[in-house]
Amino acid sequence: QALVASLATNKFTVLYRLQENSTNQQCEQLAKLLTDNKFQFKIGIGSEAQTIIELKNSLYQAWKSIELGKIVNPLIQIYSIENLHLENLISMIPTAIQKNYKSCGI
Question: What is the rounded distance in angstroms from the CA atom of residue 81 to the CA atom of residue 91?
Answer without folding.
Answer: 13
